[in-house]
Amino acid sequence: MKVDYRCPACILKVAAREARILQPNKRLSFIREVVKILDEKLDSAPTPAHIAYYKELLLQKFSGEKDPYKSIKYQLIKVINEKIVPLINEELSNLPEGYHRFRWLVLNSSAMNGYEVPLHGESDLVNRFMKTIRKDLQIDHSEEAFDLISRMSSSDIISLILDNAHEVPVDLILANYLEIIGKTVYIFAKKNPAADDITYDELKNIYNSSYVFALESPLGVMIEKESKINMNILESSRLIIAKGMANYETLTEIDLGAPVFYLTTLKCEALAENVGGSLGNPVALLRR
């Protein structure tokens, strides 16, 4: 997905919310630098995620923190584990084996993406998730994706590319289910902090698996920044499950030779228009 005329306004809106992290005397200077980045990078950036990354570098610089979201990420993961995960597992146990369980987990994973820390604060995470999940999947390719997964052998790789930290407890239920039905799942998290994305080290602290990998890409998957090892894994995957907007923005601009199953909530007009949905709805979109 290329940069849209609406992207600068969206990036600046997020930056204005992020500025609240900073000391009051640094906020205007931070916004001024973000505006400069927009002016400098708008014509050359391959995707909106590339511009957003420069914004996140500025936030780190002005805050003096390598990971400005670190404490918030842990707080939100705790909330999800306590208030959402038990509800998901309870409903999961009432569903028949196979596609119905898979679709339920896909819906939850997509709906959890509807919450953004800079835009929505910390207080309404659970309520926003419940409202989003009640909308159901506006675009639903889950049956096609499950058919593809069902025909895979245990030696075939499914790569799951994670997004925001608070989504991870729900995403891991999906990963665990795929493993229960005999599939091999490789999970990718960011090597270094960017926005409120889960990092490799944070993931390893909560999930014990030898199939966890550190993405070099700061946001999404940026082929010019990624390691050859990671690119080889993604290109040899039978299916890539990609969470969130940055993964959609970047992966739709490159050809990895594998189908990509995008799980996200449509949080901006440009993305909604690009996928053919409407604002605020969760989608599960398979593109071959």
The number of distinct helices, counting runs of at least 4 residues, comes to 14
Strands, total number: 7
Q: What spatial form do the alpha-carbon principal axes imply?
A: globular
Query: In percent, how helical is the residue content?
Result: 40-55%
Kindly provide the radius of gyration, computed on alpha-carbon positions and rounded to a whole number of angstroms.
18 Å
> Any guess at the CATH architecture of the largest domain?
3-Layer(aba) Sandwich
Regarding quaternary structure, what we see is single chain
Given as residue ranges, the uncertain stretches (5+ residues, pLDDT < 50) are: none
How far apart the termini lie comes to 16 Å
* CATH evolutionary superfamily of the largest domain: Uncharacterised protein PF01937, DUF89, domain 3
Count of folded domains: 2
Can you summarize the main beta sheet?
7 strands, mixed
Q: How would you state the average pLDDT, rounded?
A: 95
Element order: H for helix, E for strand: HHHHHHHHEHEHEHEHEHEHE
CATH topology of the largest domain: Rossmann fold
Decide which structural class fits the backbone.
alpha/beta
Strand order of the largest sheet: 1-7-6-5-2-3-4
